[in-house]
Amino acid sequence: MEACVHENEPLRLRLSCLDRDAPKTALRTSSLAVPTEESPLIASSQPVSPSCCICLDTVRPDDLVHSIPCRHVFHAGCLEFWYLYENDNCPLCQRPLLPQAAGGGNGGDPGGRV
User: Fold this and answer.
1) How many domains does the chain have?
2) What CATH number is given to the structural domain containing 63?
């Protein structure tokens, strides 16, 4: 796998790999805007506003989110901060954040090392 940016910029490299494999989009235009579960506590006609479990604030329709495999929703900046501290798994379900890590690729190592 080719390096995303210069080797002397490990944080930028890590973020560019997150952006490449889990692209950012506004929640409103994301497939994540469609709820995957229904709750008997919320009427189906009520709009669902997910909250970010990292900062505990509401994720609004125009907020940027990353499209991660498990479909959990976090603010893009919150997830980037989480990911920069070597957290390669979803804060909620612990599934890999990046698809190649889930498929047994390079284990989430942005440099492609095994």
Assistant:
1) 1
2) 3.30.40.10
